[in-house]
Amino acid sequence: MQKKFLIFFTTLIASMALTTGCATFPGFDFALQKDDFWEYNWDYESQYFDANATNITQENSKFRITLGEPTTINGIQSFPIIFSGNGNYVKDHCTHIAVQNDKIYCSPDGSDLIEIFDADDGNMIGYGFFSTLNESALFEVQSGQISNDYIDTPAYVISQSSETSNCEYYPGIGNVCGSDYDETLIKKEYYKENIGPIGAYHYTGFSGDSWFSNSTLNIGMVSSSLRGNSVDYDLEIEPNNYITNATKIFWHEPIVGQRPKMKGDNWDENNFGGVRTFSFVEPTVEIEDNDIPDQGQYFTTLPIKVTGQIIQTDNSYNIDITGVPGLPNYRATFEDWYRIHLFSSKTIEIRLDFPPPNPFVQPDIDLFIMSIAGNSATIHDSSTLDNPANGNYSESITVTLNSGTYYIGIDLHELQGSSGSVAYTLNLKEAGQITEVEIIDIYEVDIPGDFTPPAWAEITGNPSIVIMDSNGPVGGYYNKDLIYGKLINLSIARLGGHIHNKFYIGVTTQGTYSLELKGGIPPPITRTP
What we know:
- The chain is mainly beta.
- The chain has three domains: 2-229, no CATH class; 232-278 and 436-529, Jelly Rolls; 284-430, Sandwich (Jelly Rolls).
- The longest helix is centred in the first third of the chain and has 15 residues, at 2-16.
- It starts with a helix and ends in a 10-residue tail after the last strand.
């Protein structure tokens, strides 16, 4: 009911507004147009302290508001807000913005307008641009100064502050406090003539008998078309962690919303779907029978990925485990075997993953690598975690070996539950070899009909990129050097048997970045290891 009255009240004011030319705060009857934008940086910090713990969380990123095609709301020309970048603390508060008769309006739903800044007489109800101040209170515009890491300038400010205490003073006794908490709230929004909203400051603090927590949000404008700024990049639109919601990046000449350059980061990716893991290694399938050492699949090159299944009823081959540090002497029964031949001394990494098919099945599988000569086995290394006890259904080995043939044995040590089999993935690689990457942002690239190579994708910052199609890395699993790094020749990447009208660029973890599509002769290629 309160919001309906607020919308009715501000709509009535808008319909009655007259341009007097004598605004209390001049400079707020500026014109908006399609493609106008404001870009903001922000930082957020929350703290919690008590006798047993101290927790501090810090976040920062940027977002941009761009105006779309105008429409009419309550008789006033209004512009839809196109939001890009990361700004969950303010996103979706306003769907449209309008300026008329020295007043700035916001629409919360595209149907009605609410006055958020009144330069005519300096009084308005506090719906706010970045977030709601107090819709039941009347606010007054005051002259002030915004000063944070992003902007420092005189500005007009609308502010809200309040304090509540669970303590009361009694004469002759002093403060008497209950068992609840004290609260402090400060919200400020800043506006600049001929520009509009340029920043905000939010502070919330809570305190009890033996604890204290607070949070602080700073927002500052870093560029705007109304200030004469221009940008040659767009911001990623979250969530874009999956192929199905990838952010589009364009080959076209720079126009708003279709620039060939993007900026992004990996802020709070868990809120947007987390990371995706993509492998550069083509998997092979276990070949039965591999129940004895000399029947195991034979490999001579690394990396290797094998998908297999270990079954309780498999035939098994017994090996006496003796003299292995940390293990008792016992007879192990190995159900699956693999062989790897090394032509020179190498340090190799072996990992066996076997997630349980359901919570009721708890496999305990052990992993060994050994040499076998006749009836004698020499154990070079092993991984024998108690998987059900620690909830880690993975075994891993890193070992340095001389040239020769080695046997990898998989032992279903115990299987708790009704299932008689467990699926697994066996990975072998040289130490430090990149066989998979974690992707946090994905971009979709449409290839125009007039596409003319050469063309390049380049990323700056700590992350790297990988060229993908909807199924994974493009160009074949063995062409990692062509599709992964900081600078990728897109023409060559398309020659790996995956010629499509579109492809995808995945960005790895590791922070902020700038991604750009380029044509022509690039600078020298510097690849990641």
